[in-house]
Structure prediction request, 358 residues.
Amino acid sequence: MLADEVLTKQFGAEAFQASDFRDNHRLIVPVDKVYAMIVALRDHAGFDFLVDITAVDYLHYPDATDRYGVVYCLSNTTTGVRVVVKTFVNDPDPMVPSVYSLWRGSDWMEREVFDMYGITFSDHPDLRRILMPDGFVGYPLRKDYPLRGYGERHNFTPITRAEG
Amino acid sequence: MAVNPSDNFFISKLDWVANYARANSLWPMPFATACCGIELMSTASSRYDLARFGAEVMRFSPRQCDLMIVAGRVVMKMVPVMQRIWQQMPEPKWCISMGACASSGGVFDTYAVVQGIDRFIPVDVYVPGCPPRPEQLIRAVMDLQDKIRRTGTLMGEEFDRRSTHEGPMAMNESIPSEERVVAPGDYNTATRLR
Prediction:
């Protein structure tokens, strides 16, 4: 596949792992090279469209060695080929480089990943919560976050008739 | 020509007159956040015709409304908005909690969805259903009219006396201490009204 050739030529075959699942082509890359590799994929393999950025929490996942996976879905708008780039980060400071400089559309996607998982994106221009309220603490999609939360949903003052 | 006094005036109570006017001209504020809002629209439109009860004037400015119909689930980001809209409505005002989600959270027992709006604002009538049929909402409006006719006063004294919270207590009282909220302080400045 073209993506593999580009990355092998520039970074060597040992720098990443490629695999196929169903019709997905997946590249597992180290976090310190993820930005350079995405630049290479965009500039030399034609993956010019960022479809999605999301994340996975691998807490209690069988045989998992890393806590979080950050997933980039890229698309080649000329050929229609897609590739899934995945990198792993860990506590206590999960951080990946932002791809905002490559695609402006990554702005809200990275904010959502930060909001839900607490993974920070270095060099993001405006990294703050996007779905949860500003004062919210905790990251709801982490596996150790309880389904019903810590009671944040009831942390408001009731209004009575007299003060209404 | 002699005028018979009984032909020209009648005697009533001012409370009765006020209640008569208020009960038959409820102007709803449609706080519709989910599928209950569709049923609310259906109730207001021609087939079910809420205008028969004088409640057809949906106003999208809370300052012109006296009946808030909360139709749909309310998430914690929406609670300050809902409370502000409620406070912007002029007295006298009433609230209908329409549907399972607004009344109890419904199936959405998650970290972000409020488990019943009556924990945060006063509610007069609850409508069960998921979503309720328009007939149920009409029944709720009729019940509210009945409540207004029975308990209303000209100056709204029935509201002044109710300075205590009417709904169930905040749910974090029932959450075990190890799971209780960890950073409540921020909400004083971040999302709460006052």
Q: What stands out?
A: Residues 182-194 of chain B have pLDDT under 50 and may be disordered. The CA atoms of residues 105 and 115 of chain B lie 4 Å apart.
